[in-house]
Amino acid sequence: MPNFDIDSYCRDGYHQLPDMLCNEDQRRAVEFFDALEATGEVASDYEAEYDEADGVRRLRKLRRLLWNDPKLWGPILNRTSCPGLARQVIGDGAAVVFHAAFLKPAYVGSEVTLHQDQALWTCTYPRAFSIWFALTPVSPVNGGLFGCPGSHADGYIPHRDRPHYRWHACLDIADDRLRDPVQFELSPGDAVMWDRFFAHGSAANTSPIDRRGMVVVFADASDPEFRAKDRFLLTDLAALGTV
Ligand SMILES: O=C(O)CCC(=O)C(=O)O
Q1: What is the DSSP letter of 150?
Q2: Residues with Cβ < 8 Å from 93, sequence gap 6 or more?
Q3: Range(s) of the domain holding residue 172
Q4: What is the pLDDT of residues 119-142, one digit of tens each?
Q5: Consecutive H or E run containing 95
Q6: End-to-end CA distance of the chain
Q7: Strand partners of residue 101
């Protein structure tokens, strides 16, 4: 388990987790996404989204990774300390409810406007938190990732649609009186975890370097309010082994 300071996580709504993914698994993940993109045809089960500009079309987002390829992703997740963190933060009733890639490709990768995850989900995910893995260098140079410390503290903040932004409703730092964002500077394999109400986003990638990230979301499946389309209980995840 990494050095996890639960007090700072509860105070700020996020926590940085260096070296979560070993080099081999980070490379495996990048190779998987590169190979999938190279096929030119992504199965509909991945619910793929694309960024497009000036005749270039690149993968933006893939969903349901663990459900589409449990034999690949189960052992990769089990070789990290994610399951242990989920036990510590949520308890034995934790389950993976989302596993997605945010691929923010070079030149055309679009912005992800500031939002709280729970505000965009169609179900309530009790005690949910995300672990977002950097698969390439991540910094403001290639679109980065940022978040507003303490933005989780009062729970849900109403989101608004923004003209010409097609993906989802969003927050605004000034209008919603949020604190200045922290820009995460991550090396491949580093991760950041955040609370379901932590406001975060990323900028467009105008650089020549892809900014690839992967996120896994855990929630408390033992809570009576829990409803989900997909769930992978910790016991089912553990059964996928580490090799
Ligand atoms: O990868 C990004 O740019 C944004 C990630 C995000 O918004 C999320 O995981 O909820």
Answers
A1: T
A2: 220, 221, 222, 223, 233
A3: 6-153+166-238
A4: 999 999 999 999 999 999 999 999
A5: strand 94-102
A6: 19
A7: 62, 214
For 24, the token pair is 């081999």
Across the chain, where does the E strand assignment appear?
Answer: 14-17, 49-53, 56-62, 94-102, 112-115, 129-134, 146-147, 182-183, 191-195, 200-202, 213-220, 232-233
pLDDT digits (tens, 9 = 90+) for 195-231: 999 999 999 999 999 999 999 999 999 999 999 999 9
Contact (CB, 8 A) for 108 and 56: yes
Q: Does any domain span residue 243?
A: no
Domains: count for the chain: 1
Which ligand 1 atom minimizes the distance to the CA of 132? 9
Ligand 1 atom with the shortest distance to the CA of 130? 9
Residue whose CA lies nearest to ligand 1 atom number 1: 102
* Beta carbon of 117 within 6 Å of any ligand 1 atom: yes
Q: Output the CA torsion sign for 193, 182, 141, 62.
A: positive
CATH of the domain at 132: 2.60.120.620
What letter does residue 141 receive in the DSSP assignment? G
Q: Is residue 160 part of a domain?
A: no
Answer yes or no: is the C-beta of 151 below 6 A from any ligand 1 atom. no
Which amino acid, one-letter code, is at 49?
E
